């Protein structure tokens, strides 16, 4: 698979929707993850990321404008021991609870499917990073309808062991803007990961479409110690 520049990929797409990036920093020292949300409606744009214990959650920027919270208020990031879960919906909790019961990442998601927001049927995208004893691996999941057919759910899981330095994978909900919104296709895109956390965060934020971007989360986890640094950007506030 050809490795692409994440900056160019984002700048060329006005509406990838919600996106997850996971990989290893160029110096090999850090497990990297990022999650961003975008929005076209007032309800979708009326959000911010706030820190919540070891993870984050979404919150209405202006509570008086909050309409339907069911698909926009959730915890995108949660931490369970040495595992960090990143998703675009409340399946974060499903994975967290499944892991606690001894299920795998993939098994935990068997009870879920794409979002019930026809005609888009937004895919549920999820990722999990495990950093332990100086080793790093991750997996990503895509649950999508079969060409906007709500009677059929396609389930794809991708696992990455000992990922290479300077490389990551990028998974997002929509191919591009449209009506209905076309779901992501294929396996996660291989992207270059360059720079430290501040430079990477700045690049992502500036590359996202100015009108549609809402919030961004970035975390760098030290593969040896397990310690992490986090950055959050919100268009509102």
Short description:
Helices cover 15% and strands 41% of the residues. It has helices at 6-11, 42-45, 91-100, 105-108, 197-207, and strands spanning 19-24, 30-38, 47-52, 55-60, 77-80, 83-87, 124-132, 135-146, 149-161, 167-172, 189-192, 213-222, 228-234. A 6-stranded antiparallel beta sheet has the order 11-10-1-2-12-13, with helices on one face.
Describe the secondary structure blueprint for this structure.
Layout (H helix, E strand, L loop, with lengths): L5 H6 L7 E6 L5 E9 L3 H4 L1 E6 L2 E6 L16 E4 L2 E5 L3 H10 L4 H4 L15 E9 L2 E12 L2 E13 L5 E6 L16 E4 L4 H11 L5 E10 L5 E7 L3
Antiparallel strand pairs: 1-2, 1-10, 2-12, 3-4, 5-6, 6-7, 7-8, 8-9, 10-11, 12-13
What do you see in this structure?
It is a single chain. The chain has 237 residues and is mainly β. The protein has a single domain, classed as Glutamine Phosphoribosylpyrophosphate, subunit 1, domain 1 (4-Layer Sandwich), CATH 3.60.20.20. It is built from five helices and 13 strands. The protein has helices at residues 6-11, 42-45, 91-100, 105-108, 197-207; strands at 19-24, 30-38, 47-52, 55-60, 77-80, 83-87, 124-132, 135-146, 149-161, 167-172, 189-192, 213-222, 228-234. Strands 11-10-1-2-12-13 form a six-stranded antiparallel β-sheet, with helices on one face. Strand 3 and strand 4 form a beta hairpin. It is globular, with a radius of gyration of 16 Å. It starts with 5 loop residues before the first helix and ends with a strand. The mean pLDDT is 97.
């Amino acid at each position: 698979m050809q490795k692409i520049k994440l900056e160019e990929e984002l700048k060329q797409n006005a509406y990838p929707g919600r996106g997850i990036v996971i990989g290893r920093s160029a110096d090999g020292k850090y497990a990297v993850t990022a999650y961003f949300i975008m929005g076209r409606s007032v309800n979708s744009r009326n959000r911010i990321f706030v820190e919540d214990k070891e993870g984050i959650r979404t919150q209405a920027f202006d509570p008086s404008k909050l309409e339907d919270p069911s698909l926009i208020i959730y915890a995108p990031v949660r931490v369970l021991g040495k595992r960090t879960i990143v998703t675009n919906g409340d399946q974060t909790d499903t994975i967290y609870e499944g892991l606690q019961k001894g299920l795998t990442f993939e098994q935990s998601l068997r009870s879920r499917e794409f979002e019930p927001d026809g005609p888009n049927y937004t895919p549920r995208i999820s990722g999990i990073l495990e950093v332990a004893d100086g080793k790093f691996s991750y997996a990503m999941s895509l649950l999508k309808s079969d060409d906007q057919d709500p009677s059929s759910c396609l389930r794809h899981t991708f696992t990455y062991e000992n990922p290479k330095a300077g490389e990551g994978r990028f998974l997002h909900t929509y191919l591009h803007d449209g009506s209905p919104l076309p779901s992501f296709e294929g396996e996660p895109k291989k992207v270059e990961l360059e720079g430290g956390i501040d430079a990477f965060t700045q690049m992502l934020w500036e590359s996202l479409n100015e009108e549609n971007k809402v919030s961004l989360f970035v975390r760098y986890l030290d593969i040896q110690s397990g310690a992490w640094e986090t950055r959050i950007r919100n268009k509102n506030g």
